[in-house]
Amino acid sequence: QVHLVESGGGVVQPGRSLRLSCAASGFTFSNYAMHWVRQAPGQGLEWMAVISSNKYYADSVKGRFSISRDNSKNTVYMQMNSLRAEDTAVYYCAREGPRYFEYWGRGTLVTVSS
Amino acid sequence: DVVMTQTPLSLSVTPGQPASISCKSSQSLLYSDGKTYLYWYLQKPGQSPQLLIYEVSNRFSGVPDRFSGSGSGTDFTLRISRVEAEDVGVYYCMQSIQLPVTFGGGTKVEIK
Predict the structure, then answer these.
(1) Cβ contacts of residue A74 below 8 Å, gap of 6+?
(2) Is there a contact between B48 and A92 if contact means CB atoms under 8 Å apart?
(3) Which of A25, A46, A97, B11 gives 20 to 30 Å between its CA and that of A103?
(4) Cα–Cα dist B100/A47, whole Å
(5) Which of A92, A99, A107 sits opposite B54 (nearest CB)?
(6) B64 within 8 A of B40, measured Cβ to Cβ
């Protein structure tokens, strides 16, 4: 069955960088677009980015975050630079297709704090 | 960006009673392919969101038939015919007709 497992979260100081990973299994990874969605503590869901043959970003992270994928490793990444306190959130990866966000990972917590 | 507005913010429901959540989008979610890209998700406490309804009214695999979705254009509704204890959590509507994907603010459902 489909599994998505995020990793790489932790506590990081403002202005520093972090790279999140999402390891996928149970499906042909290269056939699907992959997304990152985040949720600040006690808040709602916020879409961050998608990667298929192209990449698109939310305005809130454009220029600071970069999504990439390695189809040979069945993994999607989110490189997060210049982190701010407001980037503190649980970060989920999710698969697109055949229905949007049928599958989600359990998330990884990023805390930006000095 | 498409703005998704959900009401109410919260609901307290007696088990066995119905519940209804409204979601309005700032522009039509009807695409040129004839599909309407409106989804409903439930995030149970401490869990990841899970897909309930796709394209307005289609229940995802394994979703009980007490959940139903309706609407068109810019106005949508999620109904639970008889709320059960396991239905507690936050419900989100979401549009995918255009990027950025956007979510409603969420409706918290609790049991009386």
Answers:
(1) A23, A24, A25, A29
(2) yes
(3) B11
(4) 7
(5) A99
(6) no
